[in-house]
Recover the amino acids of this structure.
C-alpha cells in the first residue's frame, strides 16, 4: 500500500475526530527584585509617593504622555502621545496614541487626559481623606493639589479637540512645557477605577493605568506584585509576574541573589561590587544618575536661623573624601545643585561650596556659636551608604567645633515632623528633565516642598524661580538660575550639597537588562531578555 495513501487516510480519519483546544503554556518568567525600601507613603499614588523608591516602579503600571529615554540619552520621546506640536509659546497639542487600553479594559482617550489633569490633579474638595468614604471627582488631597500647582503653575485649561487630540493651554509662555508633561506627576490614570474604588486608599494602592504591568497585590513595607498586561500597546511584556520585595538589609539582598531567591538586588554599595562579581553568575550594573544627595536645613531652628552657621556646616564637609572612600571613586562632587545635561541653563562658572575648615570656624565665631546641639535626623536604610555618610559628617562637624546630635529615625514622618525640634535631615534632589524647572519650583519655589513643610522660604529666590518659569529668553533664564544657586547654597542656604548619586543594581548575568540614569527600572520588552 502506497505510503501516501495511508497518510491521506489517517488525515481523513483524524478530521472526523472531535477537536480539543490545548492551552498554550505561558513560559515567561517570574522575576523577583529585592529592594531596600518599597515606598514611603504606603500607597502607589505617585504624588503621595514622590520618592526615590516610588520612582523605581511607578512607570511599570502608569505612564505619561511624553516618555523619557532613561536608559539612553535622557531625550524626550513619544509615550501615550505619539506626537506633539507647539501651537504657540503657551499652547501644546498632543496626538494621542490609538489602540491604548487601560488595565480595566477601558479605551484610552482625550477624556482620560482631561480628567487626570483636571479633577485628579486640581480638583477642589475636602482637605482630608473621608474615613472609609467613597472618593468623588471633586476630591483631591491637599498634598496632590500642592504638587500639581508646583509642577504646572500656569496651566490654564485643557482643550479636547477630538477623542485623540488634546491641547494644553498655559496662561503664560513656557519653554519647558514638554518637559513638565513628561514628569511622573502627569501620569495618566483611569477615572472609572477611581469612581468605583470603595475608598481612596483602595484606589491609591491599586492604581489603574496603561503600563505593561498591572498591580496584582501591594502590601506596605512588604511586597508589590505586578502581573503582565498582555493588552499593552507596546507589545507583550517579557515577564509574567514581577515581584518587588522589601529587604532592608544589604547582606540579605546579596545572599538572596546568590542563593537564587532574587534575580535583582538593588541599592548595592560600591565596596560589595567585587564580591558580587566574583560570582560567574552575577554582575553589577549602574552608575551616576540624575540625582544629587544632600541635606536640607530648617531655617527656623534657633541655631540655624543664622545663615552663617548653615554656611559653616557646608564648608566643614570634605566631599571629595566621601566620594573616594565611601563611594570608591564611583560618584563625583557636582558644581552645586545642577546637572550638566541642563545644557544652556548649566551655570558653568558656578562652583559648589569648597571644603574650608578655617572659614567654617571663622563663620561660627562670627555668629557667636557656643556649642549648642544641632539635631540631625536620619532615616536608616533609605539612601545607600546613608548611615556611614551621616557618621562621617558628624565627625567632620565635630572637627570644626560643631555639636551635632545624630538621631536615627524609623520613618519619614518622624524625620519631617515639625512639632518636634528639627534642624537638618537627609534629602536628595532629582532632575526629571533637562532644565532647573524640573525640580527647583517644586522644591524651593512658591508652594514647593520646603515652603509647604515649613523649612525654608526666600522671597527673592521665589521671584526668580517664577521668572525662570515664564521667561523665553535663555540668557536671562540662565542668569536668574545662577542667582538662585547663589541664594540656596550660599546667601541663605536651604541645603548642603554632598555628591551626585550613583545607583548600582546586582543581577543575574544571563539577564540582558540596562540600568536607567534614574531610579526608574524598565522591564519592557525593549529592555529585558534572558540568554
Amino acid at each position: 500500500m502506497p505510503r501516501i495513501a495511508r497518510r491521506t487516510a489517517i488525515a481523513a480519519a483524524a478530521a472526523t475526530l472531535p477537536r480539543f483546544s490545548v492551552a498554550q503554556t505561558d513560559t515567561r518568567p517570574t522575576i523577583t527584585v529585592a529592594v531596600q525600601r518599597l515606598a514611603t507613603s504606603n500607597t502607589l499614588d505617585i504624588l503621595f509617593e514622590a520618592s526615590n523608591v516610588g520612582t523605581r516602579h511607578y512607570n511599570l503600571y502608569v505612564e505619561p504622555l511624553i516618555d523619557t529615554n532613561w536608559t539612553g540619552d535622557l531625550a524626550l520621546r513619544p509615550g501615550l502621545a505619539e506626537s506633539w506640536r507647539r501651537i504657540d509659546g503657551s499652547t501644546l497639542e498632543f496626538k494621542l496614541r490609538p489602540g491604548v487600553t487601560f488595565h480595566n479594559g477601558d479605551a484610552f482617550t482625550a477624556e482620560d487626559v482631561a480628567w487626570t489633569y483636571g479633577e485628579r490633579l486640581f480638583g477642589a474638595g475636602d482637605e482630608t481623606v473621608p474615613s472609609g468614604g467613597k472618593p468623588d471627582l471633586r476630591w483631591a488631597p491637599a498634598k496632590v493639589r500642592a504638587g500639581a500647582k508646583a509642577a504646572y503653575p500656569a496651566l490654564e485649561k485643557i482643550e479636547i479637540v477630538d477623542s485623540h487630540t488634546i491641547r494644553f493651554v498655559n496662561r503664560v509662555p513656557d519653554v519647558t512645557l514638554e518637559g513638565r508633561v513628561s514628569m511622573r506627576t502627569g501620569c495618566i490614570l483611569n477615572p472609572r477605577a477611581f469612581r468605583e474604588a470603595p475608598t481612596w486608599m483602595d484606589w491609591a494602592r491599586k492604581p489603574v493605568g496603561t503600563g505593561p504591568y498591572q498591580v496584582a497585590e501591594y502590601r506596605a513595607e512588604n511586597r508589590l506584585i505586578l502581573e503582565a498586561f498582555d493588552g499593552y500597546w507596546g507589545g507583550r511584556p517579557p515577564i509574567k509576574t514581577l515581584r518587588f520585595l522589601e529587604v532592608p538589609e544589604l547582606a540579605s539582598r546579596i545572599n538572596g541573589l546568590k542563593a537564587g531567591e532574587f534575580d535583582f538586588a538593588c541599592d548595592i554599595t560600591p565596596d560589595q561590587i567585587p564580591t558580587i562579581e566574583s560570582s560567574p553568575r552575577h554582575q553589577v550594573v549602574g552608575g551616576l544618575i540624575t540625582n544629587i544627595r544632600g541635606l536640607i536645613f530648617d531655617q527656623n531652628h534657633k541655631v540655624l536661623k543664622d545663615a552663617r552657621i548653615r554656611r559653616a556646616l557646608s564648608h566643614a564637609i570634605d566631599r571629595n573624601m566621601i566620594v573616594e572612600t565611601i563611594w570608591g571613586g564611583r560618584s563625583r562632587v557636582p558644581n552645586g545643585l545642577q546637572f550638566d545635561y541642563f545644557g544652556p541653563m548649566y551655570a558653568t562658572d558656578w562652583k559648589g561650596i569648597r571644603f574650608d575648615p578655617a572659614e567654617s570656624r571663622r563663620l561660627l565665631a562670627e555668629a557667636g556659636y557656643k556649642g549648642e546641639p544641632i539635631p540631625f535626623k536620619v532615616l536608616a536604610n533609605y539612601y545607600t551608604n546613608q548611615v556611614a555618610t551621616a557618621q562621617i559628617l558628624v565627625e567632620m562637624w565635630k572637627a570644626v567645633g560643631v555639636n551635632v546630635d545624630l538621631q536615627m529615625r524609623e520613618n519619614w514622618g518622624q524625620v519631617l515632623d515639625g512639632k518636634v525640634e528639627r534642624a537638618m535631615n537627609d534629602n536628595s534632589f532629582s532632575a526629571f528633565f533637562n532644565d532647573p524647572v524640573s525640580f527647583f519650583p517644586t522644591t524651593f519655589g512658591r508652594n514647593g516642598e520646603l515652603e509647604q513643610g515649613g523649612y525654608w522660604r526666600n522671597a527673592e529666590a521665589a521671584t526668580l524661580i517664577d521668572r525662570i518659569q515664564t521667561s523665553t529668553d535663555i540668557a536671562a533664564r540662565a542668569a536668574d538660575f545662577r542667582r538662585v544657586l547663589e541664594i540656596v547654597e550660599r546667601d541663605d542656604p536651604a541645603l548642603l550639597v554632598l555628591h551626585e548619586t550613583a545607583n548600582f543594581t546586582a543581577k543575574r548575568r544571563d539577564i540582558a537588562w540596562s540600568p536607567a540614569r534614574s531610579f526608574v527600572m524598565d522591564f519592557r520588552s525593549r529592555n529585558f531578555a534572558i540568554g
DSSP finds 18 helices and 18 strands in the chain. The first strand starts at residue 30 and ends at 35. The chain has a mean pLDDT of 90.
